[in-house]
């Protein structure tokens, strides 16, 4: 109890010190992490091998490559992700700075899973560090070798107070969850996901839950079965089926069921040879409990392929079940093992209905040459993510958010989405203390005329009518005239400057070409008027940053 | 918002009144779900959602336009109902309940086709021929629980987002603002598609039973304590939540600023809707010298706004209920009354009040004020103000006033809060282009404008690949060899460098 409190307390104190906030610090920590992965590659691969019997190639491509890619991407893009994002304004706030500032949340808890014991801890960690948080990492105790290694390595490379590792099982995790965090990212199963969210509710802590589910794979009659089955075989039996986004079951027309079995059989031979058990590329089930659970799923099923098991080495051969009844046990829970049931459906309508009747899956796969059918499948179902004509690959693209929906989880991460998940999007509006005349429209006592004025000011930005633009242009012109008359200042470009501009004269020259569509906001008149708050500097119509946001940027 | 009043007494009138069940003594488990009085309604809406009816843009636009008609047709009724519930001035109602909703509605209608579009994303070299995009999928059946302080705006703005994103919705307005609740329950359903949208009324008991059902998203506005209950109930079904809660919003006034303008902007934000605004400045932090200058300016601002006797001003509101009135009245005993302080229980009137000599340990500094009282806490300098703010729960908004940009910046950088507004109050929420939401105790998740749409949409990562070019996939398939290993390593290196050169 006290130990957890101490660890979280130390992380919080370190976060409060503010040292995790500067961009340079975050990048420096990410670089250290990169160094760690590169220098300790052998140790990491050995730990994963000991936990899951993953051969070096598998472990490298599944776990290390992903982490290195994410690190490289994050370090390169972080400055642009973290920059304050200016937003559109209305007439009432025209002279002000309005932007979204991405701020760290505080102390983040990352709870990893055992099936990809390294990447599922490191990838969220990268996002949390990038967003400037302190992090407590809790790797899965099931993959104990990797957990121990992570606990040993992280403190050697990263700031010890800001980034802590806690190891242990259920009692430790329960203890940890009584602490207050500012975000929790959990990867695991739905039952524990509910416990994590209920614990988070006590502290009003936002959660990202990466859960599993039965990801369906629909094979249309109109497709290259050989290629489809190759890709499915790869995704299903990789890591011995212990992948949260592996295709869980196949939906196809009864007429192609036997061809599917044959094709997978042929691919398996190509991948793992005649004797799968002796292939160095085929993994084992993680522990006895899961081994027994998967064996239970085979009971009473028609085994079309595989089915061989060896309890001592927790080996289960790549298995296919045919003509599986939708009510059977294997169709009720996530399989998470090398067992592939085939459920036959007569049409795509039936497949869609079958999918929609069940909990929303983490992934959805569809194989077809018919683009219309793929579009329909996407439009009429729901799932965390989806890939058409392949499996797993949508999770490889860091630009795509990775996460579930409904029973398969909530929230998303990977790449930019990780950064956003671990950042608070703080709405910032910095006004000028002067020009209180403009505010009169909103102060009591109220009257009908003032109401109309308020409407004009507040509604302007969404009112696209020419009249609205004309009126606002007119207003701007009047203001400019007043400014000119009162001070008579001119910008070097010849346009009128507002009185009392806090910025030196020379900076007033607009840095952008006014060649883009001559809308109100691009007009030089408007530009100079709103110069002292936030003029438009970028050619893409996005307002640029004002002094406050700019200084924030440089502070970073 | 303030604690404990989100679901108090039952109202007399209810649209879809729950039949007397087992009195809520059953467990909140999935097994007993079928016995919940609302299970039928929820599954009816879910069936409508699954039919795909809400997905086409035309349907969403039609429903949103109907919402606009609801506002237009019922403008007078809304003005009357909110005047009766909260004594709201017509100006305030038009501004905060109608205008802001319209604003939101227009923003949504203007941009919906753009927001709904699949978002194309960058691909890796190996996937140049594929198509990768983020689809904005509706969640399904959404529950919106609204509070009483802005009884129209706070259910309508999330409703606009939920409809825009293609969901079916159950709206549960607050039972505390009785007249408005009745208006919503009676008038709204006739504008919207009854297969997809429903209004449920009731108090704590009904809401508890409602929360037993599985929703695909829950949007709650109210107090942190009820927020915890809602999130705990949501956890049972793994339902994502947005919680818009309250908190004590600090307002720092530095020594260098235009006192008159500060006083006007603060007084406006504090006394708008008789202080019953979740983002109102809750307390002032300033030096003793500043307080001396601010007091006459605040007095003048109050006088300008509401006249010498605010009780007679048509522009000043009333406290919503007797229970609330008593709670707020008790807070008057903290510190010393410098301005105002008058109360009238019969009318639930509390004058615009400023308290001085307030200690951080006083009752008024322990809870969200949510009434027309502005306590001033004296601090020595900006550092002390920042420490004061940081030693408390993170608020929904932080306000800082100063003629010096650096001071405003400092407060912004060194504090954390849902939103921030420099040199003014409340105004950051009038921009639909800014996200509105809390952090920590003040809530989680955001809404307004596109953020509402995003809140009620599941960003679904989609990748469409071609069936050809199978040889490109060879490196990833077993059996693995050293040659393949090298190939993967090499391509990965190329990919990493190309991140900067090619993209």
TrEMBL record, chain A:
GO biological process: aldehyde metabolic process; fatty acid metabolic process
Keyword line: Coiled coil, Endoplasmic reticulum, Fatty acid metabolism, Lipid metabolism, Membrane, Microsome, NAD, Oxidoreductase, Phosphoprotein, Transmembrane, Transmembrane helix
Pfam families, alphabetized: Aldedh (PF00171)
InterPro entries membership: Ald_DH/histidinol_DH, Ald_DH_C, Ald_DH_CS_CYS, Ald_DH_CS_GLU, Ald_DH_N, Aldehyde_DH_dom, Aldehyde_DH_NAD(P)
Membrane topology, record value: Single-pass membrane protein
A GO term from the CC aspect: endoplasmic reticulum membrane
Protein localization: Endoplasmic reticulum membrane; Microsome membrane
UniProt-annotated catalytic positions: 210, 244
Domain Aldehyde dehydrogenase: 2-425
Coiled-coil parts of chain: 23-50
GO molecular function, one term: farnesal dehydrogenase (NAD+) activity
PROSITE patterns listed in its UniProt record: ALDEHYDE_DEHYDR_CYS, ALDEHYDE_DEHYDR_GLU
Major subcellular site: endoplasmic reticulum
Database matches in CDD domains: ALDH_F3AB
Known catalytic reactions: (2E)-hexadecenal + NAD(+) + H2O = (E)-hexadec-2-enoate + NADH + 2 H(+); decanal + NAD(+) + H2O = decanoate + NADH + 2 H(+); tetradecanal + NAD(+) + H2O = tetradecanoate + NADH + 2 H(+); a fatty aldehyde + NAD(+) + H2O = a fatty acid + NADH + 2 H(+)
Subunit structure: Homodimer.
Family assignment from sequence similarity: Belongs to the aldehyde dehydrogenase family.
Name this protein carries in UniProt: Aldehyde dehydrogenase
Organism: Serinus canaria
Automatic annotation (TrEMBL), chain B:
Catalytic site positions: 244, 278
PROSITE patterns referenced in this protein's UniProt entry, alphabetically: ALDEHYDE_DEHYDR_CYS, ALDEHYDE_DEHYDR_GLU
GO cellular component, one term: cytoplasm
Domain of life according to the entry: Eukaryota
InterPro entries, sorted: Ald_DH/histidinol_DH, Ald_DH_C, Ald_DH_CS_CYS, Ald_DH_CS_GLU, Ald_DH_N, Aldehyde_DH_dom, Aldehyde_DH_NAD(P)
GO terms, biological process: aldehyde metabolic process
Heme listed as a keyword: no
Transmembrane segments: none
Residues covered by the Aldehyde dehydrogenase domain: 54-458
Keyword terms of this UniProt record: NAD, Oxidoreductase
Comp. bias (Basic and acidic residues): 14-23
Region (Disordered) location: 1-32
GO molecular function: 3-chloroallyl aldehyde dehydrogenase activity; aldehyde dehydrogenase (NAD+) activity
Family from the record: Belongs to the aldehyde dehydrogenase family.
Name of protein: Aldehyde dehydrogenase
